[in-house]
Amino acid sequence: MSHTQVAIIGAGPSGLLLSQLLHLNGIDTVVIERQSRRHVEGRIRAGVLEQGTSELLIEAQVGGRMLKERLVHEGFGLGFSDRSFRVDLKGLSGAAVSIYGQTEVTKDLMDARTAAGARLVFEAADVSVAGFETAHPTVRYRHEGRIHELTCDYIAGCDGYHGVCRRSVPAGALQTFERAYPFGWLGVLADVPPATEEILYSNHARGFAMCSMRSLTRSRYYIQCGVDEAIEAWPDSRFWDELRARLPASVAASVVTGPSIEKSIAPLRSFVVEPMRFGRLFLVGDAAHIVPPTGAKGLNLAVADVRVLYQALAERYRTGRADALERYSERCLRRVWKAVRFSWWFTTIMHKFSDEPFAHRLQLAELDYLTGSTAALTSVAENYVGLRFDAP
Ligand code: APR
Ligand code: PHB
Questions:
Q1: 33 CB less than 6 Å from ligand 1?
Q2: 201 alpha carbon – ligand 2 mean position (Å)
Q3: How do 2-9 and 29-32 pair as beta strands?
Q4: Could you tell me if 47 and 100 are in contact, meaning their C-beta atoms sit under 8 angstroms apart?
Q5: pLDDT single digits (tens) 243-286
Q6: d(Cα 240, Cα 261) in Å, to the nearest integer?
Q7: How far is CA 237 from the centre of its chain?
Q8: Residue 373 C-alpha to ligand 2 middle, in angstroms?
Q9: Is the Cβ atom of 15 under 6 angstroms away from ligand 1?
Q10: Biggest distance spanned by C-alpha atoms of the chain
Q11: For atom 1 of ligand 2, which residue has the closest CA?
Q12: pTM of the model
């Protein structure tokens, strides 16, 4: 049996960043992850960091490579009616976003945690959490054939949507809110120069498409597809043809094709659990909320939760006061719901929901209104770069 102050379940960006920030505040953690380190480091996810996210990575002393390698984007594009409109994020909101893959963020965090001698347990099986409604929570898991028990002061459930923590809270103590969308995103990563300088989201009668990138030589593209479609039905050539068909012609002409180095289909959903704390168990990131990727809020929301939680834990260990911990759920949920709303809205105006021409005309009218109104654009820009943090 061993002890730590904060047991962290899950070594995704939430768990690793929380571990790193607590370490810098003199708080001991153990991170317990179901998958192998290789698996965690290899996952391809989104790549847009809000300014507040980049700032927290810097504060966590893991921003060095990000600052060198990131692309700073002061705008993004909206494609519709065969034209491309630039949303001037900087001019409208004063802020910009950083293009830096979540895969790279995870690597940087992993390296920093390893260098500091952190206790990270990979390939932990049968992880279970208990006792969090008392002052003595415990975590049990099997590792290399042996059962381990870890006692702790607090548990951070950073184990994603499919994790064990949320499911361990007694039925009836949590309320969930959910919306599934009738489509998914088919994503392709390829070592070809991006078609656009900035990210472009395109509304098209055939369905949504988008152009993104990881660097000046690596592109990330997505197209809306059916939730049940088989990846085998999408050989590279079909993907490239469909992508080009859904982009404004001038952008389509700039698409450089090449072999895909990753291709996957992800469903789109909105999901929120309330509250995000149950006794001494805190749900963080994807364990508590999921947003559709339109708007790139998933990672940024997770990082915002980590900011609230590490500050509250630091205060608790520094002063003995737990009031900030008590307010964790309420503070996070205010931001979460605003991001859920923005991601839902952006998804709604950019995707094809039906064959009904009326619905598409409404979307085009909304995009036409939006791109002609500084007031409406300012609202979009403010949400895209990340809302200000509410006062504690
Ligand atoms: N025990 C231990 N670890 C677990 C368990 C379990 N029972 N279940 C899941 N995990 C691990 C997963 O293997 C994963 O490494 O928890 C981790 C959760 O990581 P993410 O899913 O990346 O979630 P999070 O860290 O909250 O990251 C924020 O925002 O929108 C997203 O894609 C974005 O992944 C990003 C997320
Ligand atoms: C990505 O680059 O993977 C990406 C960018 C912006 C989004 C979603 C995904 O809104």
A1: yes
A2: 9
A3: parallel
A4: yes
A5: 999 999 999 999 999 999 999 999 999 999 999 999 999 999 99
A6: 14
A7: 29
A8: 25
A9: yes
A10: 63
A11: 46
A12: 0.97
